[in-house]
C-alpha cells in the first residue's frame, strides 16, 4: 500500500512517513489486542490440556517407579492381561449399548413431547430433563440405594409380581445391565432435548407439503424428520459416544468395577491401577487406549459441525 | 460540516478489485447519492469514507484533511445502516446518546441534543422505549437521530430504506429530505433504487463495476445520460434500445429501424449526427414516455408507425404497451383511453426530439 | 396410530375426516401415556432420595414399604446441616464453583470476542482447537495432571496436591473450552453493523465488548455461566484424585467417601446429602430452565 502511495507525488510525499507509521501502529494494535484477549485461553489449553496429554504418552513408557524407560513394555504387559481385554470389551459394550438406547429413547420421547399441545410441553420437558441436571455422583448414590442387596426398593416392588430378588450389582451380567441402565437414565434426556430442538427447527410447511403429497405418519418421519435431523443426530450421538466411553462416576460409585472387575471401564480401571495402586505409568497407559476411539469420534463431529456451519 | 473529496480511490480484496479508482468532489452541505446495481462498489466506497474499510490506494479527504489512516471515531462522521444497527439493550435515548457519552459530553448537553434531535424527527414520545418495541419506520428515525445528535461533519447512509415496505419508504424518503433541509450536513447516501437517488440527491453518482459512470444532477442524468448504462439504469420503465442505422434520403438524414420503418431526423438532430459514418451500428435510445399513441395533430419531430402489440399493462393513469421490432422488445406508454389491447394493431408516435443515439459497440451516447 | 386409518382407505370424505381427528386423539393419548411412563422413570431416583431422606435409621432398617414414609423426620437434615464436616464440603464446593465460574468467564469472553470478531493469524485454527479441547474427557487427563502437580509440588515446594484450591486451576480445562465455543456462536450471531456503529460512535474494542457485546449476548452469557457452575459443582473424578483429606473435600467426594463408613451405610444421611448436593443445580435449573436448555443445545446448533 505504501509503495503505491509514493507514486502519487506532492500530496503523498508529505503524508507518506506518517501514514506508514500509523498503519503499522494500527495493524500492530489490532493483532496485539487479539493476542492478549486469547492469551489466557491459549495458556490454559497448552499448560493444562495439551501438555498433560503429551506427558501421559511419556509416562506410559516408564516403569512403575518411573525411573526407567520401558518403551512399549506397559502396552505389551497389558495385552497379556485378561482383565485388560475384559475392560476393552466392557467399555465398548457399555458405550455402544448405552448410546443406542439413549438415542432411541431420546428420539421417541422427543417425539411424544413434540406431539402434545405446545403449552404443556415446557412442563414435561422440565420433568424429563431432571436426570441430566442432578450431578451424576449424587444421582448414582440414589441408584446404589435402589439396587441395595438387602433393602432394594426395586426388589421389594418386584416381589409382589413373584419376581426376584434380582442381584442388581452382585452378579456380573446384572451389574453390567445396571450400570448401562443408570447411564441411559442419566444421558437420554440430553438426546431428548437435542432432538426436540431439531424437531422444532423443521418447518411445518414441509410436513404439510408431505401430507398433501400423501405421506403417512411413518413416511413423514422417514423422509422428512430424519433427513432434516441427520446432522444433529450424528453430532449428538458421536458426542455422547465420547462422554459415555470416558465415563467414570457411575461405575465408580455403583460397583467400583466389580464384581470381579466385570464392570470396569477404561476410566475406572485406570483410576484403580494408576491412583489406588500407584502404578502411574500403567494407569496412563490404560487411559491412552481411549484415544483412538475418541479421536475418530472427534474427527466425525468436527466434520459435521463445520458442515452445519457452512449450511447456516 | 465539511466537503469530502476522493482521489483515485482503489479498493482491492485479494484478487478482486471492488473499487477501481474513483475521483469525487462533494461540496459542503451537498446531498450526494451513490447509485448502482449490487456489487458496483457503492457500499465499499461509503465504508471507505466511514473508515470501516482500509483503502488500498488513493486518498480520502474530509474537510481538506487526508483521513486515510484516521480511525472512524476521529473522522467526525455518522452513519445510518441498512438494518439500523440499533443497540438492542439500550433505550432510544441511550442509543442516540451513546457516542456522546463515550466522548464524556456534559449530561446537560447530551440531554439537550437528544431532545432536539427527537423533536426534529418526531420521536419524542418514544425516547424511553427499546428498539424491539419500535416499528421499522420508527427505528429508521432513531438511527437518523443517533447520527444527528453527534452533529458530525458528514452523514453516511447505507441503503437506509431497503428494509422498509414500499409505502413507508416513500414517506421516509421525504423525511430524510426534510431533515437535510433543516440540518444541511454534507450527506453521502448509497442506494440501489434509482427513484430514491433521483428524488433525494443534489447530485447523483452512478456507479458500475467499481467505476463512476456519470456524475450529475437528477435532471442531467435523466435527459443527458453519458453512457448506455446510465441511460438504461435511470428511469422506469427503462429506456428502449433499438438497433438502427443512419441513411441519407434526398438531402435529409433518416434513421432506419427496420426494413419497413424509418424516420426523418429533426433538423437539430440531423445536424448533430451528420458526421457519423452511415455504416456504423447504432442504437436508438428512446424512453417509453416518448413512445405514445398517435394524435391527429403531430408536433414537428414526432413520427408515427404501425405495430401489433404483444401485451398491455393498464397502470391506471397510463397503459404500458409492449411490442417487438425485429426481435427487440420495446415498451411504450399510452393514454389509458387510447384503446390499446393485447394482440391488437396500433399506431404509435415516437418523439424524436427526445431521442438518444448510442454507439452499439462502446455504449457511448453520441 | 394413523397407519390404521391409511389401511382402511377412505371410502368417503366424511369418514376420512372422522378418522383423522380420532387419530389425533389416540396419538395424543399414547403420547401422554408414554410421557407419564418416562417421567416416572426419570423422577424415581430423586423422589426416592427425598423419601429416604425423611426416614429415621430405625425405619430404614425395619424394611417397611420403601416407597412410603411412615414416620417422617427431618433429623437427617438437622444432623447434616449442623455437621461442620458437611458444611465444610458445601463451602468448598461453593467457593470452588463460584471462583471457577468467574475465572472461566474472564478467560472465555475476551477469547470468544477475539475469535468471533478479530480475524487474526491462526484464529480459525484456534477456534477449532477450542472445540477439540472440549471433547477431551477428564478421564484421559487425570493421571498426567496428578503426576504433573506432584512434580511441580516437589520442585517449587508449593502445596498443590490435597488442596481444594488446585481445583480452581484444573476445573477451567473442563469449562473454558465449551463456554468459549458457545460464546463464539453468540457473538458471531450479533450483526456486524452493530460493532461498526459502535466504532463510528467512538467505542474502542474494549468498550465495544463491555458495552455492546456482553449486554447483547447476555442470554448466552447466562447459559455459559450455568454450564460452568453445574460442571464445577458436579465434577467428581478430579477432586477424588487430587484431594485426600476430609477438610479438602468438595461435596460429591465428601458424601461418597465419608458417609459410607465401611459396611455401615447410613442411607438416610447419604440420601439427604445427595439431595442437598443436587439442590443448587436443580434450583438454578428450575429458575433458569430456558437458559439452561439454550446452553445445552448451543454446542451443536451454534458455531
Automatic annotation (TrEMBL), chain A:
It is a multi-pass membrane protein. GO terms for cellular component: plasma membrane. It holds the Pfam family BPD_transp_1. InterPro entries: MetI-like, MetI-like_sf. The keyword Transmembrane helix applies. Residues 88-303 form the ABC transmembrane type-1 domain. Coiled coil: none annotated. It is found in: Cell membrane. The keyword Transmembrane helix applies. Keywords: Cell membrane, Membrane, Transmembrane, Transmembrane helix, Transport. GO terms for biological process: transmembrane transport. The chain crosses the membrane at residues 33-54, 93-114, 126-146, 174-197, 232-254, 280-302. Belongs to the binding-protein-dependent transport system permease family. This is Sugar ABC transporter permease. It comes from Bradyrhizobium hipponense.
TrEMBL record, chain B:
One of its GO terms (cellular component) is ATP-binding cassette (ABC) transporter complex, substrate-binding subunit-containing. Gene3D superfamilies: 2.40.50.100, Nucleic acid-binding proteins, P-loop containing nucleotide triphosphate hydrolases. It is found in: Cell inner membrane. PROSITE patterns: ABC_TRANSPORTER_1, ABC_TRANSPORTER_2. One of its GO terms (biological process) is carbohydrate transport. It is a peripheral membrane protein. GO terms for molecular function: ABC-type transporter activity; ATP binding; ATP hydrolysis activity. The keyword Transmembrane helix does not apply. Residues 4-234 form the ABC transporter domain. It comes from the Bacteria. Keywords: ATP-binding, Nucleotide-binding, Transport. The keyword ATP-binding applies. InterPro entries: AAA+_ATPase, ABC_transporter-like_ATP-bd, ABC_transporter-like_CS, ABC_transpr_MalK-like, ABC_transpr_MalK/UgpC-like, Mo/tungstate-bd_C_term_dom, NA-bd_OB-fold, OB_MalK-like. Pfam families: ABC_tran (PF00005), OB_MalK (PF17912). SMART domains: AAA. Involved in beta-(1-->2)glucan export. Transmembrane domains (TMD) form a pore in the inner membrane and the ATP-binding domain (NBD) is responsible for energy generation. Belongs to the ABC transporter superfamily. This is sn-glycerol-3-phosphate ABC transporter ATP-binding protein UgpC. It comes from Bradyrhizobium hipponense.
TrEMBL record, chain C:
It is found in: Cell membrane. GO terms for biological process: transmembrane transport. The chain crosses the membrane at residues 30-51, 89-114, 120-143, 164-188, 208-229, 267-288. The keyword Ion transport does not apply. InterPro entries: BP-dep_ABC_trans_perm (IPR050901), MetI-like (IPR000515), MetI-like_sf (IPR035906). It is a multi-pass membrane protein. Gene3D superfamilies: MetI-like. It comes from the Bacteria. Signal peptide: none annotated. It holds the Pfam family BPD_transp_1. One of its GO terms (cellular component) is plasma membrane. CDD domains: TM_PBP2 (cd06261). Keywords: Cell membrane, Membrane, Transmembrane, Transmembrane helix, Transport. Residues 90-288 form the ABC transmembrane type-1 domain. PANTHER family: INNER MEMBRANE ABC TRANSPORTER PERMEASE PROTEIN YCJP (PTHR32243:SF18), MALTOSE TRANSPORT SYSTEM PERMEASE-RELATED (PTHR32243). Belongs to the binding-protein-dependent transport system permease family. This is Carbohydrate ABC transporter permease. It comes from Bradyrhizobium hipponense.
Amino acid at each position: 500500500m505504501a509503495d503505491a502511495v509514493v507514486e502519487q507525488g506532492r500530496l503523498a510525499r508529505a503524508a507518506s512517513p506518517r501514514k506508514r507509521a500509523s498503519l503499522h501502529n494500527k495493524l500492530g494494535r489490532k493483532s496485539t489486542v487479539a493476542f492478549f484477549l486469547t492469551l489466557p485461553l491459549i495458556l490454559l489449553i497448552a499448560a493444562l490440556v495439551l501438555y498433560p496429554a503429551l506427558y501421559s504418552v511419556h509416562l506410559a513408557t516408564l516403569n512403575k517407579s518411573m525411573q526407567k524407560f520401558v518403551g512399549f513394555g506397559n502396552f505389551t504387559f497389558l495385552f497379556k492381561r485378561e482383565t485388560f481385554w475384559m475392560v476393552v470389551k466392557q467399555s465398548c459394550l457399555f458405550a455402544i449399548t448405552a448410546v443406542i438406547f439413549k438415542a432411541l429413547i431420546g428420539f421417541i420421547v422427543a417425539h411424544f413431547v413434540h406431539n402434545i399441545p405446545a403449552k404443556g410441553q415446557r412442563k414435561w420437558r422440565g420433568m424429563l430433563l431432571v436426570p441430566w441436571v442432578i450431578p451424576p455422583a449424587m444421582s448414582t448414590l440414589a441408584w446404589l440405594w435402589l439396587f441395595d442387596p438387602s433393602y432394594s426398593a426395586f426388589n421389594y416392588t418386584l416381589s409382589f409380581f413373584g419376581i426376584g430378588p434380582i442381584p442388581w450389582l452382585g452378579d456380573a451380567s446384572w451389574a453390567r445391565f445396571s450400570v448401562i441402565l443408570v447411564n441411559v437414565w442419566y444421558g437420554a434426556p440430553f438426546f431428548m432435548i437435542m432432538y426436540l430442538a431439531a424437531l422444532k427447527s423443521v418447518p411445518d410447511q414441509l410436513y404439510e407439503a408431505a401430507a398433501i403429497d400423501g405421506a403417512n405418519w411413518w413416511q413423514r418421519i422417514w423422509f422428512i424428520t430424519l433427513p432434516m435431523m441427520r446432522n444433529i443426530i450424528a453430532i449428538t450421538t458421536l458426542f455422547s459416544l465420547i462422554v459415555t466411553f470416558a465415563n467414570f462416576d457411575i461405575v465408580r460409585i455403583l460397583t467400583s468395577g466389580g464384581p470381579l472387575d466385570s464392570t470396569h471401564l477404561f476410566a475406572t480401571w485406570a483410576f484403580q491401577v494408576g491412583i489406588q495402586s500407584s502404578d502411574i505409568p500403567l494407569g496412563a497407559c490404560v487411559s491412552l487406549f481411549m484415544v483412538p476411539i475418541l479421536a475418530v469420534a472427534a474427527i466425525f463431529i468436527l466434520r459435521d459441525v463445520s458442515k452445519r456451519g457452512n449450511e447456516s | 460540516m465539511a466537503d469530502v473529496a476522493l482521489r483515485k480511490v482503489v479498493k482491492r480484496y485479494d484478487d478482486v478489485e471492488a473499487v477501481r479508482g474513483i475521483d469525487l468532489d462533494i461540496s459542503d452541505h451537498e446531498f450526494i447519492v451513490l447509485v448502482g446495481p449490487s456489487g458496483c462498489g457503492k457500499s465499499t466506497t461509503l465504508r471507505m469514507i466511514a473508515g470501516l474499510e482500509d483503502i488500498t490506494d488513493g486518498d480520502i479527504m474530509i474537510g481538506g484533511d487526508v483521513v486515510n489512516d484516521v480511525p472512524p471515531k476521529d473522522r467526525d462522521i455518522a452513519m445510518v445502516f441498512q438494518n439500523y444497527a440499533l443497540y438492542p439493550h439500550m433505550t432510544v435515548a441511550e442509543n442516540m446518546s451513546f457516542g456522546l457519552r463515550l466522548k464524556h459530553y456534559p449530561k446537560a448537553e447530551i440531554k439537550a441534543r437528544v431532545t432536539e434531535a427527537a423533536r426534529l424527527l418526531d420521536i419524542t414520545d418514544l425516547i424511553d422505549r427499546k428498539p424491539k418495541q419500535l416499528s421499522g419506520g420508527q427505528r429508521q428515525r432513531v438511527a437518523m437521530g443517533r447520527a444527528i445528535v453527534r452533529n458530525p461533519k458528514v452523514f453516511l447512509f447505507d441503503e437506509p430504506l431497503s428494509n422498509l415496505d414500499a409505502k413507508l419508504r416513500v414517506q421516509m424518503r421525504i423525511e430524510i429530505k426534510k431533515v437535510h433541509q433543516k440540518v444541511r450536513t454534507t450527506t453521502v447516501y448509497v442506494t440501489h433504487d434509482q427513484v430514491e437517488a433521483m428524488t433525494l440527491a443534489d447530485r447523483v453518482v452512478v456507479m458500475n463495476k467499481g467505476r463512476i459512470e456519470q456524475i450529475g444532477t437528477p435532471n442531467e442524468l435523466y435527459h443527458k445520460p453519458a453512457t448506455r448504462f446510465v441511460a438504461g439504469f435511470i428511469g422506469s420503465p427503462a429506456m428502449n434500445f433499438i438497433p438502427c442505422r443512419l441513411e441519407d434520403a434526398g438531402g435529409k438524414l433518416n434513421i432506419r429501424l427496420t426494413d419497413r420503418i424509418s424516420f426523418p431526423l429533426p433538423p437539430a438532430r440531423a445536424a448533430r449526427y451528420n458526421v457519423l459514418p452511415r455504416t456504423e451500428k447504432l442504437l436508438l435510445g428512446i424512453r417509453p414516455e416518448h413512445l405514445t399513441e398517435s394524435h391527429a395533430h403531430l408536433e414537428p419531430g414526432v413520427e408515427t408507425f404501425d405495430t401489433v402489440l404483444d401485451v398491455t399493462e393498464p397502470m391506471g393513469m397510463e397503459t404500458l404497451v409492449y411490442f417487438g421490432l425485429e426481435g427487440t422488445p420495446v415498451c411504450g406508454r399510452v393514454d389509458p383511453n387510447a384503446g390499446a389491447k393485447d394482440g391488437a394493431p396500433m399506431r404509435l408516435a415516437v418523439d424524436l426530439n427526445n431521442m438518444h443515439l448510442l454507439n452499439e459497440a462502446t455504449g457511448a451516447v453520441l | 396410530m394413523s397407519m390404521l386409518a391409511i389401511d382402511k382407505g377412505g371410502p368417503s370424505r366424511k369418514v376420512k375426516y372422522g378418522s383423522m381427528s380420532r387419530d389425533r386423539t389416540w396419538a395424543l393419548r399414547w403420547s401422554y401415556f408414554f410421557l407419564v411412563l418416562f417421567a416416572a422413570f426419570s423422577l424415581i431416583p430423586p423422589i426416592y432420595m427425598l423419601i429416604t431422606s425423611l426416614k429415621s435409621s430405625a425405619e430404614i432398617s425395619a424394611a417397611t414399604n420403601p416407597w412410603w414414609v411412615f414416620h417422617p423426620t427431618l433429623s437427617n437434615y438437622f444432623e447434616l446441616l449442623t455437621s461442620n464436616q458437611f458444611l465444610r464440603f458445601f463451602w468448598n464446593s461453593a467457593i470452588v464453583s463460584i471462583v471457577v465460574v468467574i475465572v472461566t468467564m474472564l478467560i472465555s469472553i475476551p477469547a470468544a470476542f477475539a475469535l468471533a470478531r478479530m480475524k487474526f493469524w491462526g484464529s480459525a485454527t484456534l477456534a477449532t482447537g477450542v472445540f477439540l479441547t472440549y471433547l477431551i474427557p477428564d478421564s484421559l487427563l487425570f493421571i498426567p495432571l496428578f503426576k504433573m502437580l506432584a512434580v511441580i509440588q516437589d520442585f517449587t515446594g508449593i502445596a498443590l496436591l490435597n488442596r481444594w484450591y488446585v481445583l480452581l486451576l484444573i476445573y477451567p480445562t473442563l469449562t473454558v473450552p465449551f463456554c468459549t465455543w458457545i460464546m463464539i456462536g453468540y457473538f458471531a450471531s450479533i450483526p456486524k453493523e452493530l460493532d461498526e456503529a459502535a466504532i463510528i460512535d467512538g467505542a474502542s474494542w474494549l468498550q465495544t465488548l463491555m458495552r455492546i457485546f456482553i449486554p447483547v449476548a447476555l442470554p448466552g452469557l447466562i447459559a455459559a455461566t450455568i454450564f460452568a457452575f453445574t460442571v464445577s459443582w458436579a465434577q467428581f473424578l478430579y477432586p477424588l484424585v487430587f484431594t485426600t483429606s476430609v477438610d479438602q473435600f468438595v461435596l460429591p467426594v465428601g458424601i461418597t467417601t465419608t458417609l459410607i463408613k465401611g459396611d455401615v451405610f447410613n442411607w438416610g444421611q447419604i440420601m439427604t446429602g445427595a439431595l442437598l448436593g443436587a439442590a443448587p443445580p436443580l434450583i438454578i435449573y428450575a429458575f433458569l430452565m430456558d437458559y439452561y436448555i439454550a446452553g445445552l443445545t448451543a454446542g451443536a446448533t451454534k458455531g
